[in-house]
Design goal:
heterodimer
């Protein structure tokens, strides 16, 4: 009897990681971006007590950790009575949740991070959430001392500044025109423009973190820590939406 | 082989510093900057006095360290500028320390000697994610590493001395660190939901909050301590700064979640000036907000952008004894320095 209970409990816990098909929804236990105190299968979650002054129930409101609701202190700054008391954000004034500055519309050059990528990076800064997005392999020397090849491999494709070490850029417009430039001399690089299989650009046609990562749910067939919150069923399927390669792409 | 090259490089860099005459004194006050907050006709309270990106403009003539580096390694094109600065600390006279977790090092800018030293290792162990930095009265520097889960100590010559809390405290993700005038060190541990306190001799003293007697912390990320030894903790999942007395009792909470003045979306660095005003950075708002002791909003400074006085996902903040405010403007890859104009002086 005891043995059976152990088997069942073991299955309950490990069943999560072995399950195939899309990962847990943001509203479900087991989704690592569900920071509700009730998400007991994640060790990174809010505490049930003492948070959010005046709003104790918010530790169970899964949206507010990323999507800041309206609200201000209701009084202007005492040192500047003429200051505006309106929202610091623009994003809630628009139809969608994307944070945006209208002046960046239509620009394809790096202004990164903009749009929704800012939401990711405002937590993934090495403190609130680990900046593993941006880190070099464990034990590696500081970025300044990496050569180009090391700096571009593996997890380093996300390094934030291409001037230091190339990475997969975000927050730039990607459309047929940009593709045509990249596939023509002097670049002659193999690119598609076929966003599909869950790969989406934002409403200004910009590639963002969310192009390949769905922060609400991992859609991959088999959850893989190297492709967290993946938007497609497989690694290659997502990459090959833009990269015209026969085999899973590498980043030379 | 590469590691040896780096050690040799660092050795050369320190030797180099001894022979280089100060080519260009970096002054705090840059007359080309004219921004103040609030704008006229209001009484100015905050003045922008310095913007710098790091090595490129700091060292003059440009690139003497860099050419040494290139000569040693045969590689070109490396830059020593700030990459994505986080924690920051200064002694108000000579040194500014900037933790740069993406670059995996801490920059030490020596304003007097025009010299930069990089803290890249703790002994033989490379830093993985240095996020917080603090200085004590003797010029020792303490660095928190959020990945290695350790707090490293360097002496005033930037030599590694040891770790603190070793064998006593099981740090999980140390981040914010601050040092009080009495030498006590306060380390915010994000995953432990605790602040650990060490005395001036680095001996563990206590931790708080005690959930039995006080409201808990919910992912504390940054920390500051004022002249009365009150401790200010940025509590990420509370979207607020919680203020504790010397004994670790919660005495007040500043701010709450929201998108307007007096509230927070991604509160980051916290600092206190000589008149006990509290400065709190918000990475999503691209500003810092200043509160009085009662927690009422006094002013917000900055907006999104790349020009001087504008910010791009700012992070760490520090205030020195001269009420200079140092801000890590992370994604603009620079540090901006402001002067608080005292209330008496302003009148």
């Amino acid at each position: 009897m005891k043995f059976a209970a152990i088997i069942i409990i073991t299955f309950l816990f490990f069943g999560y990681s072995l399950s195939e098909g899309a990962g847990k929804k943001i509203s479900e236990r087991g989704n690592k971006h569900n920071f509700s105190y009730q998400n007991i299968s994640s060790n990174y979650r809010a505490l049930p007590t003492g948070e959010m002054e005046g709003f104790p129930s918010r530790s169970n409101q899964i949206c507010v950790f990323c999507h800041t609701p309206h609200g201000s202190s209701g009084e202007g700054p005492l040192w500047n009575r003429q200051a505006s008391t309106v929202s610091f954000f623009k994003h809630f004034s628009s139809a969608s949740l994307a944070i945006d500055d209208p002046s960046v519309r239509g620009i394809s050059e790096y202004g990164q991070p903009n749009g929704s990528s800012r939401l990711c990076l405002s937590c993934h800064d090495g403190v609130t959430a680990l900046g593993a997005l941006f880190s070099t392999p464990s034990g590696a020397t500081p970025m300044y001392f990496l050569d180009v090849r090391t700096g571009q491999s593996g997890t380093n494709i996300h390094l934030p500044y291409e001037t230091y070490s190339s990475h997969h850029p975000v927050s730039f417009k990607y459309d047929v025109n940009v593709r045509n430039i990249l596939t023509s001399p002097p670049y002659n690089r193999p690119y598609w423009f076929s966003p599909a299989n869950g790969v989406t650009l934002d409403r200004y046609q910009r590639m963002q973190c969310t192009t390949c990562h769905d922060p609400h749910q991992d859609k991959s067939d088999v959850q893989d820590p190297t492709t967290p919150f993946w938007t497609g069923k497989t690694y290659a399927e997502v990459c090959k939406s833009c990269h015209n390669m026969a085999s899973p792409p590498s980043f030379p | 082989m590469r590691k040896i090259a780096i050690f040799v490089l660092l050795l050369f860099m320190s030797l180099q510093a001894c022979v280089r005459s100060p080519a260009k004194q970096i002054l705090f006050d840059d007359p080309s900057l004219s921004r103040v907050w609030p704008s006229p006709p209001e009484q100015p309270r905050i003045k922008l006095i310095k913007v710098f990106k790091g090595a490129e403009e700091f060292l003059n003539p440009k690139g003497r360290i860099q050419s040494f580096f290139e000569a040693l390694t045969g590689e070109h094109g490396h830059s020593f500028d700030l990459m994505a600065p986080a924690g920051i600390a200064a002694d108000g006279e000579r040194f500014i320390y900037v933790a740069d977790p993406s670059a995996r090092l801490v920059h030490r800018f020596d304003l007097r000697e025009n010299e930069i030293v990089y803290l890249t290792h703790a002994g033989t162990e490379p830093l993985a994610s240095p996020v917080g930095v603090a200085l004590d009265m003797d010029g020792n520097c303490y660095v928190t590493d959020s990945v290695k889960a350790k707090v490293y100590k360097y002496n005033a010559d930037a030599e590694y001395v040891g770790t603190i809390g070793q064998g006593v405290i099981d740090f999980k993700r140390p981040a914010g660190i601050a040092i009080a005038r009495n030498g006590n060190k306060y380390v915010a541990d994000v995953l432990s939901n605790k602040v650990f306190v060490f005395d001036r001799y680095d001996r563990f003293v206590s931790d708080f909050p005690n959930p039995l007697y006080s409201e808990g912390l919910n992912k504390p990320v940054n920390i500051a301590v004022d002249k009365s030894n009150n401790v200010y903790v940025t509590d990420a999942f509370s979207f607020a700064v919680k203020v504790f007395d010397e004994k670790g009792n919660l005495i007040k909470t500043i701010g709450r979640i929201g998108d307007g003045p007096g509230t927070f979306s991604r509160p980051k660095g916290v600092a206190v000036d000589s008149e006990s005003h509290v400065y709190i950075v918000d990475a999503n708002f691209d500003n810092f907000q200043i509160f009085n002791e009662e927690g009422r909003l006094l002013l917000y400074v900055g907006s999104a952008g790349k020009k001087p006085g504008e910010f791009f996902m700012p992070n760490g903040i520090f205030i020195d004894r001269e009420d200079r405010i140092y801000l890590s403007d992370s994604y603009n890859q620079r540090v901006q320095i402001f002067q608080y104009i005292k209330e008496q002086a302003a009148k």
